[in-house]
Amino acid sequence: MDLITTDASPALPAVEAPWAGEVRAHPRMLADIAHAVGGPFHVLYPEQFGDNVLALRAALREAGVGGGVYFGKKANKSGCWLPECVRAGAGVDVASEPELVHALAGGVRGADLVVTGAAKKDSLLWLAIRHQCLIAVDALDELDRILDAAGRTGVARIQLRVLPPQDPASRFGLGQAELDEALRRCALASDRVEMEGFSFHLNGYQVLPRARLAAELVDRCVHARALGLAASSIDIGGGFAVSYVDEEHWRNYADGYSADWFHAGKRFSHFYPYHQAPAGAAMLAAILRSEVDGGGTVAEKFAATGTRMLMEPGRALLDRTGFSVFGVQGLKERDGYAIATVGGLSMSVSEQWKNSEFLPDPVLWPDTGAHEPIGVCVGGASCMEYDMLTWRKVPMPRRPQPGDLLVYPNTSGYQMDKNETEFHQLPLPTRVVVDRADGALRWRLDR
Ligand SMILES: *Cc1c(COP(=O)(O)O)cnc(C)c1O
User: Fold this and answer.
1) Measuring from atom 3 of ligand 1, which residue has the nearest CA?
2) Which residues pair with 160 in a beta bridge?
3) How far is the CA of 173 from the centre of ligand 1 (A)?
4) Angle, to 10 degrees, between the axis of helix 29-37 and the axis of helix 18-25?
5) pLDDT at res. 42
6) Please, which residues have CB within 8 angstroms of residue 72's CB and are 6 or more apart in sequence?
7) Most exposed of 22, 26, 208, 372 (fewest Cβ within 10 Å)?
8) CA distances from 396 to 83, 110, 179 (A)
9) Quick one: average pLDDT of 157-182?
10) Residues 87, 50 contacting (CB under 8 angstroms)
11) 164: Cβ below 6 Å to ligand 1?
12) Phi then psi for 355, rounded to 5 degrees?
């Protein structure tokens, strides 16, 4: 056990995939990239993304349920994921025209896109119908606009987004009476619309609410089929959990939590649950084997009715697929800890936006083997007092110095571009894609 004499917080080392350690262990790669791009950068490893897709698809297959995975694109805008979606057999969930066009340009076919979001623009609906995308209908007036456009453009493929009964205050989805009315309008317009099923997207990362609502919607599908509609699939949305740190480290942190661990005694309203179980494909497997209706499992109910299960994971497909790198520009001492200032802005680590903080420990590079532990907070390059990438006094093996790099692990899911900004006319972080040629790591810029 290290004796830490400064007032650092407990360590929260990230659980990472082997490629991340290999890139950091490479003698020159990170320094070369930093030199080439001259500012902060994100390192992306698409192969891991493809493997994450395949793990979800395997969970469906093992449960004997047909269906598919759509990548929730808003969680990371990089182009490098799109060919991996094609390779691994996933579609993409888009919510804007630029996202739709980007997915097409990345090789994903229109028929493999689902278009979600509230009150979609007519031009987005038109493009979606043209490309035979599946459209998640969020309101009755939107359904009318789709039917109108379909009359001029071609048959629209739709699913009806359900207002979650357990979250009745949500601004998304159709309530019970609206669903009945939507089904009636779809049945009357069967020459213009293919009603493929129902969808939802729940807050939180719980298994049971998803299992219950999915099972309930199977009954709705069966009812809709009796009206002559296809109603063949249920889209259970995203919100698959990601576990960033192991259970012991997380418990140490959560049980001993103290505002003293943060610069200026900073207090936060909440944190993402950085350790969770089950996560990713294991969470999907848990949904599928949940018992519903007093007996059978969700998987059995889907299989028995020939209903397909669709899903729209964002964060979970990006788990362990990338990290973010900021150059250290300076260090100042405080009473018992230090503040490193980096070339970058806290909006790149977007939890700050929600009065929260991205907690997995940033890693100081290079690893010199030094052992002079110190707690270090990380400030951004702007002139705002609150521009802190990390308020927490992270235990580091030595004092960072100008020219070092700070590597924020596992940032692909929402921590790269969700809130990035050119504030101060600073350039956005560059995106670097790492893959292998003949087993050796190499890098290029993302397109
Ligand atoms: C954001 C979003 C997702 C992805 O959510 P994750 O938590 O990243 O899995 C999926 N579907 C819809 C409709 C969304 O808005």
Assistant:
1) 238
2) 137, 198
3) 14
4) 80
5) 98
6) 93, 238, 312, 313, 314, 315, 317
7) 372
8) 37, 47, 55
9) 96
10) yes
11) no
12) 45, 50
